[in-house]
Amino acid sequence: MRLTLKTDYALRTLLFLGQQQALVSIAQIAQAHGISEHHLIKVVHALGRQGFIDTLRGKGGGIRLAPAALQATVGQIVRAMEDDLNLVACFGPQSDDNRCLLTGGCRLQTVLHSALQAFMDELDGHTLADLLGAAAPAADAGHAQTISISKLQPAAPVATARARQPGGSKPAKPTATPARPKRRPKKPNTGQEPDGEHTP
């Protein structure tokens, strides 16, 4: 299955608008993606009718993403833009120009129905907001490593800053505390003088 250019341009336009903070012009989008501005005008008009974008006319006007568009699924956008999701002719209404001898007992039709449903289910599983979130490139994604919180160590305590002197910018030097003289142990009073004589 291949999407039409209309749907392709619609998705590109919505993604571009989702990355902008201000109003933009159709010319800016066309130049950014290198696509036909004439063709893009029709796409933007269709997006506006479906409510995916807001249009402001006049001087300083432009287009921007409608807030509700962020919750739209890719499947919803594709269905809104595609005129025909029939994979084969027999999926559409039968007419004289659309006849198949296998219609009614064809197992291929059932398989193709299932394949289309699986395709749309996948698109319905992703919103425009999801695509915009994934679009932001991760910094150095090739060398990104997962860090386990349990392995993180607490930071070392920060040393207390020294007090500053009132008149200067340099920290005050700590004042040296004079060393106390060592005390000699007292000799027991035996009643004798140092020369060994008894005191009266």
UniProtKB/TrEMBL annotation:
Record carries keyword Membrane: no
Alphabetic keyword roster: DNA-binding
A family per Pfam: Rrf2
Region (Disordered): 153-200
PROSITE patterns assigned to the protein according to its UniProt record, in alphabetical order: HTH_RRF2_2 (PS51197)
Biased composition (Low complexity): 170-179
InterPro entries: Tscrpt_reg_Rrf2, WH-like_DNA-bd_sf, WH_DNA-bd_sf
GO CC terms: cytosol
A GO term, aspect molecular function: DNA-binding transcription factor activity
Record-given protein name: Rrf2 family transcriptional regulator
Organism listed in the record: Vandammella animalimorsus
